[in-house]
Model the fold of this input.
Amino acid sequence: MQSKEFRREISQLRDKLRSAVDRVSSRTKALEDRVESRGTAANDHSELVTTLERDVQQLKKYMKIFSDRNEDLEAQSPGYKKNGRQGRTQQTL
Done:
């Protein structure tokens, strides 16, 4: 009789243990999926930042070119003269 009771308790414990292991496995899988998703998002953001950095560098080059061209045009224009204090141009009347 004790043997039957003992087997039943072992069976119940085994079922509880399996259930607990299944819950832990399920949670672990969900966490792994979240980590993978966040890793992918971080990589995507890193690529976007790299692209933006390149774009900013290119825009800085364009700004320098346009600034230089603007100064050249102002220097060629008879209606402008340099303002010595800050290097700005002003129109003379």
